[in-house]
Design a protein that fits this description.
alpha/beta, about 230 residues, 8 strands, about 55% helix, 12 helices, binds erythose-4-phosphate, TIM Barrel
Length: about 230
């Protein structure tokens, strides 16, 4: 499963892109509205940093407006994916954008029937939301499993993108259920790093190594002799 970062923060992408785990990014109007700076510059910078598919969302409510915004957003960078909300106008816009050769991430998908419509309209990515289903007491894993099964069985090539990720377990669930991508907030990516046994293990290795100061001298000499640089 590929990992995208779900954010509107350039600083956050700068930090986490260094880990080498990100294949793309998603933004949405709410995430961008929280940030200082111009959306155009933010979207371009994020696309540069992840150097992969970067979703930017349309906000018009009619298909003509969505198509016009989508084509304009795509003009910013060839890595932009047009994010379109699921609705009748969104399906029409997705179909028209796909016919024009533009990749679409159909967002706000909560059920397999919706996912089937999104796939048939030509969406490249289908954003299956987890956290928002949990919020209303529904089983997000069951919904994602149905969406993955429904989309796998068609020939459109649409990819299931697990979204509205609220904790590391959502990421594991997405991978084990067969999502193609999970888009994960920076906070959750940082939580995925953490394990108390990893921290204590590193501390123990460091402490044991320091009981033999000559080892540090040897390793520094090895680095110097090899000419290795960071
Ligand atoms: C991503 O594409 C979605 O817009 C995002 O994951 C929504 O997350 P939220 O439900 O936590 O706002």
């Amino acid at each position: 499963m590929k990992l995208f970062i779900d954010t509107g923060s350039v600083a956050e992408v700068e930090e986490i892109a260094r880990w080498g785990v990100l294949a793309g990014a998603t933004t949405n109007p709410s995430l961008l509205a929280k940030e200082d700076g111009e959306p155009e510059e933010i979207i371009r910078r994020i696309a540069d940093l992840v150097d992969g598919p970067t979703s930017a969302e349309v906000v018009s409510e009619d298909a003509d407006g969505m198509v016009a915004e989508g084509v304009a957003l795509r003009g910013l960078d060839e890595r932009i994916v047009v994010k379109v909300p699921f609705c009748a106008a969104g399906l029409e816009a997705t179909s028209r954008l796909a016919d024009l050769g533009h990749p679409v991430n159909m967002t706000l998908v909560f059920s397999a029937p919706q996912a089937i419509l999104a796939a048939e309209a030509g969406a490249t990515y289908i954003s299956s939301f987890l956290g928002r289903l949990d919020d209303i007491g529904m089983d997000s894993a069951e919904s994602l499993a149905e969406i993955v099964a429904a989309v796998r069985d068609n020939s459109t090539g649409a990819q299931v993108l697990a979204a509205s990720i609220r904790n590391p377990i959502h990421v594991t669930t997405s991978a084990t259920l067969g999502a193609d991508v999970a888009t994960v907030p920076g906070k959750i990516l940082r939580q995925m790093l953490a394990h108390p046994l990893t921290t204590s293990g590193i501390d123990q290795f460091t402490a044991d190594w320091q009981t033999r100061p000559e080892f540090a001298v040897w390793l520094k000499g090895l680095v110097d002799r090899s000419g290795a640089t960071a």
